[in-house]
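Exercise 7. Given the encoded structure of a 165-residue chain, write a plausible sequence.
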């Protein structure tokens, strides 16, 4: 069964959301790099890469289901923040926004009686649980560290160990 027009359009919009996530995280990485937080920047670069993978996962799925991928316009991401804490709080908020979008897609798949898409989306549902948890944990640590330079350097160092999963 080919994707319904409505489902196809919604998945195309989600591809845009994933690219916008990648764009936002790359902008955050660039800001962090400019402030010499190379570990935080590396973590964000890896996060950017994950978002590209999400976009490509959707791209493959739409094609596999006989749909047509049509790319939408990307909005310019924010470029300045005040601190790593503000960045990770914004990243957490953004992940919650993406979770809402994924949930809307699941509901649409149900309305359209599209079991294959509903099942495909479960991977994203689980991924969002993980991404919300990770970003909120880092934001919490940064809140705890506050102005401590030692604490910031240590966390920068730890997060710099991350490779793209
Ligand atoms: Fe950060 O999440 Fe994509 O979906």
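Solution.
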């Amino acid at each position: 069964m080919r994707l319904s027009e409505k489902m196809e359009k919604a998945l195309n919009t989600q591809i845009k959301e994933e690219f916008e996530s990648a764009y936002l995280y790359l902008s955050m990485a660039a800001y962090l790099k400019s402030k010499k937080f190379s570990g935080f920047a590396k973590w964000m670069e890896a996060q950017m890469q994950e978002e590209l993978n999400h976009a490509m996962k959707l791209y493959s799925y739409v094609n596999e289901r006989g749909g047509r991928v049509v790319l939408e316009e990307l909005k310019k991401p924010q470029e300045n923040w005040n601190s790593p804490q503000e960045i990770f709080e914004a990243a957490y908020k953004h992940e919650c926004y993406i979770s809402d979008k994924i949930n809307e897609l699941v509901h649409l798949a149900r309305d359209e009686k599209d079991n294959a898409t509903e099942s495909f989306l479960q991977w994203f549902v689980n991924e969002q649980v993980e991404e919300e948890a990770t970003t909120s944990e880092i934001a919490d640590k940064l809140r705890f560290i506050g102005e401590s330079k030692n604490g910031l350097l240590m966390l920068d160092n730890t997060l710099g160990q991350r490779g793209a999963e």
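Remark. The pocket of hydroxy diiron-OXO moiety is lined by residues 18, 21, 51, 54, 95, 98, 124, 127, 131 (CB under 6 Å). Students should compare their own answers with the one above.
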